[in-house]
Structure formats: structure tokens, C-alpha cells
Amino acid sequence: MLISTLYVSRSLIEPARATAAVADLVEASIANNLRRDISGALLFTGDHFAQIMEGPEDNIAALMTSIEHDERHQSVTVIRRTPIRERKFQDWALAYNGPSLFIARHVARVLASPPGVDKQRTARWLTDMMLELMTV
Ligand SMILES: Cc1cc2nc3c(=O)[nH]c(=O)nc-3n(C[C@H](O)[C@H](O)[C@H](O)COP(=O)(O)O)c2cc1C
Q1: Residue 45 pLDDT more than 80?
Q2: Which of 5, 6, 13, 32 gets mutated to test ligand 1 (max ligand atoms within 8 A of its CB)?
Q3: Using an 8 Å Cβ cutoff, are 25 and 94 in contact?
Q4: pLDDT (tens digit, 9 = 90+) per residue, 27-43?
């Protein structure tokens, strides 16, 4: 079964080296994701990450476990996890378009809000935003 997961988290990467550090992270992730049949997109606002990953259930579960233990970020919060028939990011092992500072406020708000608040709306908004950013 194909699963799509969307999470947000707070970056622990020192701002001065974040641009290079995230570029390195993405490069390594693309190689891994291709091997594991995982597609997706990453958004980095300077303070927060949002990531969508799509792929076989076991591979997504294994990657989420790695990501939850990764010390480059904290407060990993899954805001959607759902079975899918088709991928949205079919052509991207991990689409990334550099720091997206203009949506920083929105992602920060997701983590600040109580659990359950408007989760579906937020998930939809973030997904649309990622699709739009990656395909311009
Ligand atoms: C924000 C963020 C996103 C990440 N995304 C991925 C990813 O899409 N694919 C991946 O293989 N690793 C990703 N990683 C790195 C993993 O946490 C982990 O370091 C990597 O999978 C290597 O794990 P391993 O040593 O268990 O093989 C990400 C890390 C962070 C902080």
C-alpha cells in the first residue's frame, strides 16, 4: 500500500549554516529516497521544516523513525498520514526549492496550535503550497 505522510518540525540547524546544511541533507535524501521508492517534497522556512513523503508503507515507516530521531530538528509533528492511490510528487525523490521564508509564519503557527485544530485544512494548504512551489 502507498502511504503519504506530512509532518512539520522545528529546525535545530544553526541559521548561519542552514542553507548549506539543508542542501546537503536534501542531496543525501534524494539518493536514499530513490533507492526506497519514496517521493516527496521538503519545505524549509529558516526555522521550520514541512515534508511530504510518499511510498510503500514499510519504507515510509522506517524513514519516519529515522527522521523522528534526527538531531537536526525537534518537535516532529505528523499532521496527516493517509493511504493514497496516486502520488502527487511522482517525479521528485525529494523536491526542494531552497529556503521559503515567506511561508514561515504559517508553518510556525501549525506547531504552536493545539493538537487537532484545523489539521485537515492545514494539511491541504501545505500540500497545495508545496506542489505550487515545486512546479513553478
Ligand atoms: C528535515 C529532515 C528531512 C529528512 N528527509 C529525509 C528523506 O526524505 N530521506 C532520507 O533518506 N533521509 C531524510 N532525512 C535524514 C534522516 O533523518 C536520516 O539521517 C537518513 O535517512 C539516514 O538515516 P540512516 O542512517 O538510518 O540510513 C531527513 C532529515 C531531516 C532533519
Answers
A1: yes
A2: 32
A3: no
A4: 999 999 999 999 999 99
94 lines ligand 1 (CB under 6 A): yes
Tell me the CATH number for domain 2-135.
Answer: 3.30.70.100
Q: Give me the amino acid identity at 101.
A: L
Residue type present at position 74: Q
Distance CA 59, CA 38 (A): 8
User: What mean pLDDT do residues 50-79 have?
Assistant: 97
Looking up cell 509564519 gives 105
Ligand 1 pocket residue status of 73, Cβ below 6 Å: yes
Q: What is 79-130 written as a DSSP string?
A: EEEEE-SS-SSTT-SSEEEEE-GGGHHHHHHHHHSPTTTTHHHHHHHHHHHH
Q: How far is CA 87 from the centre of its chain?
A: 15
43 CB under 6 A from ligand 1? no
Gap from CA of 128 to ligand 1 centroid (Å): 23
Q: Please give the residue that has the higher pLDDT: either 47 or 116.
A: 47
